Amino acid sequence: MSNYIEGKTGRWEYVIGLEIHAQISSKSKLFSNSSTSFGSDANSQVSFVDAALPGMLPVLNEVCVKQAIKTSIGINAKVNHMSAFDRKNYFYPDLPQGYQISQFYHPIAQNGFLDIQKEDGSTKRITIERLHMEQDAGKSIHDGMINHSLIDLNRAGVGLMEIVSAPEISSPFEAGEYVKNLRMILRYLETCDGDMEKGSFRCDANVSVRKPGEQLGTRCEIKNLNSIKYIMAAIEYEAARQIEILENGGSIDQETRLFDVDLGVTKCMRSKEDALDYRYFPDPDLLPLILEDQYIQDIKNTMPELPDAKYLRYTKNYNIGQDDAKVLISDRITAEYFEQTISLGALPKIACNWIIGELFSYMNKANIQINECRITPHNLCELLQLIADDVISGKIAKQVFEQMFETGKSARVIVEEENLVQISDPSLLQQIIDEIVAQNPGNLQAYKSGKDKLFGFFVGQVMKKTDGKANPTLLNDLLKNTLDS
Amino acid sequence: MSTLNKLSISQALLGLKAKEFSSKELVLSHINQIEKHRDLNCYIADNFEAALASADISDQKINAGNARKLEGIPIGMKDLFCTKNLRTTAGSKMLGNFIPPYESTVSQKLLDDGAITLGKLNMDEFAMGSSNITSYFGKCISPWKSAKDSKAELTPGGSSGGSASAVSAFLAMGATASDTGGSIRQPASFTGLVGAKPTYGRCSRYGMVSFSSSLDQAGIIARNVEDTALLLESIMGFDEKDSTSINLPVPSLTSALNKSIKGKKIGIIYDLLNEDSISKEIKDMWNKTIEICKSEGAEIIDIKVPHMKYSLPVYYIVAPAEASANLARYDGVRYGYSASQNTTNLDDLYILSRTEGFGAEVKRRIIIGSYVLSSGFMDAYYLKAQKVRRLIANDFYNNFKSIDAIILPTTPKAAFDLNKIDNDPVNMYLNDIFTIGISLAGLPAMSIPVSLSSDGLPLGMQVVSKSFDEETMFTIASAIEKAVSTKFIPGGF
User: Fold this and answer.
1) What gap in Å lies between CA B175 and CA B75, rounded to an integer?
2) pLDDT at residue B277 greater than cutoff 90
3) What residues of chain B lie within 8 A of the CB of A87, using their CB?
4) A178, A228, B62, B351: which has the highest count of C-beta atoms within 10 A?
5) Residue B278 above 80 pLDDT?
6) Chain B residues near residue A98 by CB distance under 8 angstroms
7) What is the pLDDT of residue B76?
8) Of B289, B287, B280, B292, whose CA–CA distance to B453 is shortest?
């Protein structure tokens, strides 16, 4: 995928803007005290306010505000001292009030940015125009029924952060990167769990095409894309669809479209003529949200270091490779595990290798998260220290590691219990070498007459005799001296 | 009618305490009066069984010396306030069978003080109206009769028509009411009662069926200033379930009564007083009230409210706009009137439920409200109206920097014949001309009966004070009431 599409009449470029709807991580909904838990029985988390019974009124959940502020700071946006709530009016059964409470005129934050890495490795900055809070709607289930639909209002009223990018994304790849990065930041901040499958992180893509240097074309909005793969595929298809129309002399109708994942195409959901007039006006049941500098600063002070900053530190200060660094930062708990390990004294590159190599592989097999592992950063650090001190070899360490993972015992304890301390005593090793050499005169002869590969045979024999505990480096040196003499 | 019905609330509290009669007797006397005057159509729903049960509890508490502030006093509850397990209709077919699973804060506060709900009072549908004729449950009739035409059925006013008619006919000792553009004060004026609307934000709107959120306010209609004070104190107070509720302590209104108004600065809008369109009898009443205040030592000051003349158009843009969204929840999907038996698609469900469930005035206002918010018209209508609203409010706030209260009539005329209403809704809207500007500014205002019209019908004057200064309002109202010797009791009651 590149930034350009070669059409029949020339080269076209993508113009893409993304709107993300991220469910706010909070115990209660944005304006009511019902639970936001996912997966409960239908309509079991619906208060009178959620159901919009007569006389019910919204009350703003402060936790949601704090989460929105945190997120805004995380995307480098300016948090507005004054923001307000507006009603977005339309009728649909999953919208009990007949309007959604949103922030149209005065969002909580504006003018942020997100850096992404382009395909060629260079960094590109995508402007984020705004972040605002709004209510999520309930769920409608139409499948399998002809004359009616089922409505589950559990989700109605859950807080959302709508994050709107400027139309500065120039390819499906960039779109994927943008979504990945934004999702990572929100997960780091714990303001959204970023679960696209569960629907707590949804993406609408605004797509248009144009010949380089020309005016913006008419855009179409593709709604409710719930995986990065689909986002990229939908954008690619949509751009191609628009180019074909334009190259055949037609024009693009501004439409809202849906992506059919089975067919891989976008389909019209609503045309401009059917576009709804939402009649946005300030919600008279809610006061404007006034945020003091100190309040915002206090929240800023509680924020963890973000992925970009960690990536910079790991690559520059610790000399971790770019790809490895990306893996370490992909999850905040992984990054924190890594940082804890090195704060206890482990060398960064070595710790990185053990985490990404050994630990991840055991984790995947056991299907657990890094913070569920029995091996703590302390344990890992201790193991690495044993290797550094030459107490055990790297190979033995791997055995020890497996046991550490299974039992949660510390390296030191396992090494003692299993008697795995390396044999690093030269005289002792020499003794064993001499024994092996004496027992294998034939191979000795063969080696001396040129069969160098037999060196490995002798190494193996010594290892077998010592249950693998011979210090490999020392063994190598001693054996070489012995055999070559 | 029993003499018990004629007692004021404060007298009844004393009588109950002195065990001159029981709450049960008091409740029964009101039930009897209600049964006797069904023709007035004040009550949409009765609550008699529960009321008598509550009366027993009240009697026990009184006997044990644990009487709460309003223990055993029977009142009427405007059907706009959601009462748990007791049908709440807002005067509409849309909520014709709605039984709330929750209690409004206002009604809960009265219950907590020991008051007893006799039933739910008739009102204009969704509080939209000034005559109680838009009620799905039929018009409510005032107990007052015109001297010129004793057969004519007169309106008690609206939207709190049931509240006013019931209290003036002794079918309740007091009643809750609500005011968006004048719906407490105008009915009080029409029926010779006291009607008080506190500052916007004083009473919680939780559980109060919403019409126009930035204007709706609960209040009280009662037969005298003291009773009104007692009831209003009970229902005011911060509620965290209402984001527009004000967190200020509730003042003691009863302590504000019977105090001197010497030195109080009272603003009179002489420009309005001198207008030709104001009738002679209104001008006379106004001047009479000014004289009362002067003789009590108050200082009269000429004030200007230059933008007040825009009040009606501003109100009839802002209120319907908010209503169009507040009433969007009535869609036949979750509760309320639903055409679902007869529909097979969503559009029909919405269209039929709302067409059949709403009355003409409600539909009119929803459409106006949608229009003034619509793309292309929002700036010219809604935004402009809100800006002018700010100007109107500022006119009042600026005046209140140098005065303590404003006094002006409540209504341009007395109660009209229900069966002779003309078809132009705008003429109906003109009834609210003196009350609406004050609502737009969120100010506290109350109407007290001062004169009788040439037809022998009540006319009232409003006392308006600055935001959160209900005490001054009650002090001045109390002084005027004392000086007015007329007894405002409808003939035959």
Assistant:
1) 5
2) no
3) 325
4) A178
5) yes
6) 325, 327-329, 331
7) 98
8) B280
- Minimum Cα–Cα distance from A51: chain B residue: B334
As given in the structure block, the two tokens for residue A403 are 């046991």
ipTM for the assembly: 0.95
With a cut of 60, say whether residue A212 has pLDDT above it: yes
A195 CA: distance to closest CA in chain B (Å): 30
From the list B475, B493, B14, the residue with the least C-alpha distance to B258 is B475
pLDDT digits (tens, 9 = 90+) for B71-111: 999 999 999 999 999 999 999 999 999 999 999 999 999 99
Contact between B207 and B83 under an 8 Å Cβ cutoff? The reply is: no
Q: Which residue has the tokens 């909070």?
A: A26
Q: How far apart are CA B387 and CA B317, in angstroms?
A: 12
Q: What does the pLDDT look like over B175-219, one tens digit per residue?
A: 999 999 999 999 999 999 999 999 999 999 999 999 999 999 999
Mutate to test the interface with B, among A43, A47, A56, A151 (most CBs of B within 10 A): A56
Answer yes or no: do A57 and B375 touch at CB < 8 A.
no
CB contact under 8 A, B213 and A285: yes
Residue to mutate among B334, B352, B378, with most A CBs inside 10 A, is B334
What pLDDT digit, counting tens, does each position of A241-298 carry?
999 999 999 999 999 999 999 999 999 988 777 778 999 999 999 999 999 999 999 9
- The torsion angles phi and psi of B386, rounded to 5 degrees, stand at -65, -35
Interface test with A, best of B77, B203, B333, B379 (most A CBs within 10 A): B333
**What pLDDT, on the 0 to 100 scale, is given for residue B417?**
93
Could B213 and A279 be called an inter-chain contact, meaning their C-beta atoms sit closer than 8 Å?
no
Cα gap A456→A111, rounded to integer Å = 64
Residue linked to tokens 């006094």: B407
Question: Which residues in chain A have Cβ-Cβ distances shorter than 8 Å to B350?
Answer: 91
pLDDT tens across B284-343, in order?
Answer: 999 999 999 999 999 999 999 999 999 999 999 999 999 999 999 999 999 999 998 888
Instruction: Answer whether B206 sits within 8 Å of A55, measured CB to CB.
Output: yes
**Backbone φ/ψ region at A331: left (φ over 0), alpha (ψ -120 to 50), beta:** beta
User: Which residues, in sequence order, are CB contacts of B48 under 8 Å at separation 6+?
Assistant: B31, B118, B119
pTM: 0.92
What is chain B's length? Answer: 493
Inter-residue contact A63 to A26 (CB < 8 Å): yes
Asked if A55 reaches chain B (Cβ–Cβ under 8 Å), the answer is yes
Q: Does A57 touch chain B (CB under 8 A)?
A: yes
The whole-number average pLDDT for the span B228-232 is 98
Q: Where are the alpha helices (DSSP H) in A190-331?
A: 228-247, 293-301, 307-312, 322-329
Query: Which are the catalytic amino acids of B?
Result: 78, 159, 183
Query: Is B329 close to A48, i.e. CB distance below 8 A?
Result: no
Which helix (H) or strand (E) element contains residue A11? Answer: strand A11-23
Using a CB-CB cut-off of 8 Å, the residues of chain A touching B213 are: 284-285
Could you read off the pLDDT of A28-79 as tens digits, one per residue? 999 999 999 999 999 999 999 999 999 999 999 999 999 999 999 999 999 9
pLDDT band at A90 (very low <50, low <70, confident <90, very high): very high
Residue B350 CB partners (closer than 8 Å, separation 6+): A91, B331, B332
Task: Tell if the CB–CB gap between A48 and B101 is shorter than 8 Å.
Answer: yes
264-293 in chain A: CB under 8 A from chain B: 277, 279, 281, 284-287
Query: Which residues of chain B neighbour A286 with C-beta distances below 8 Å?
Result: 243-244
Task: Report the chain B residue with the minimal C-alpha distance to residue A88.
Answer: B325
Structure-token pair, residue B492? 């035959």
- Among candidates B173, B80, B130, B161, which has minimal Cα distance to B365? B130
Task: Judge whether B193 and B449 are in contact, CB under 8 Å.
Answer: yes
Could you tell me if B123 and B158 are in contact, meaning their C-beta atoms sit under 8 angstroms apart?
yes
